[in-house]
Amino acid sequence: MFTSRAEYRLLLREDNADLRLTEKGRELGLIDDDRWAAFCDKREAIELEKQRLKETWVQAGSVEAESLVDRLTSPLNREYSLHDLLKRPELNYADIGNLKGEVTVNEQVSEQVEIEAKYAGYIDRQQEDIDRLRQHEDTVIPAEFDYATVEGLSNEVKQKLIEARPETLARASRIQGITPAAVSLLLVYLKKRGLLHKAVK
């Protein structure tokens, strides 16, 4: 599968494959007890470390804040949690993990905590997009709908929609080459024209 064709690829990452799929594998009987125990330990460690970073604070002007001056584009001017500091592009986990006392964290755990912090804003927005589209996936697309009038859709996408004539947004999203962004544009267009109607089940 081409990465560009994957839906919501900010969530479908290599680094979080075990967090997304191990539980499903366990339900299917594919994960043995040892691997399951190791996974549960890792997942718990990630959550505990994220919680610690969110609850540990660094005050402006403190020794900890001064130790970061050389790495920051501008000095801290207020109190920050370690988690907020980790979101900054110029800092990494190695810079802030032990600012408030020595902590031993598995490298896989620290890597996952850092990735989630760095991309938190983008991931949250993508999750909002997913939730919004799920709420409207049963929205009916009128049979006479003119896809050519939807600004922002590529000619290729318009052609595929014209040929397929999907009855709902859910069906439109399953057409090869129709991205979540294209479905979002359709949703916005239908909203603007007061055409949001659910399919009768």
What do these coordinates show?
Helices cover 51% and strands 2% of the residues. The mean pLDDT is 87. The protein has a two-stranded antiparallel sheet with strand order 1-2. The protein is mainly alpha-helical. The protein has 2 domains: 3-126, tRNA uridine 5-carboxymethylaminomethyl modification enzyme MnmG/GidA (Arc Repressor Mutant, subunit A), CATH 1.10.10; 136-192, DNA polymerase, domain 1, CATH 1.10.150. It has 10 helices and 2 strands; from the N terminus they run ααβαβααααααα.
Low-confidence stretches: none
- Helices and strands, in order, run as HHEHEHHHHHHH
Mean pLDDT: 87
The total strand number stands at 2
Q: Quick one: CATH class of the largest domain?
A: Mainly Alpha
Number of separate helices: 10
Derived structural class: mainly alpha
Give the biggest beta sheet: 2 strands, antiparallel
Helix content: 40-55%
Question: Topology, pairings included?
Answer:
Elements: H1 17-27, H2 33-55, E1 57-58, H3 63-66, E2 80-81, H4 82-86, H5 93-96, H6 107-118, H7 120-135, H8 155-164, H9 169-173, H10 180-192
Antiparallel strand pairs: 1-2
Helix pairs in contact: 2-6
Task: Characterize this entry briefly.
This protein has 10 helices and 2 strands.
Key features?
201 residues; mainly alpha; Arc Repressor Mutant, subunit A; DNA polymerase, domain 1; two-stranded antiparallel sheet; 10 helices; 51% helix; flat
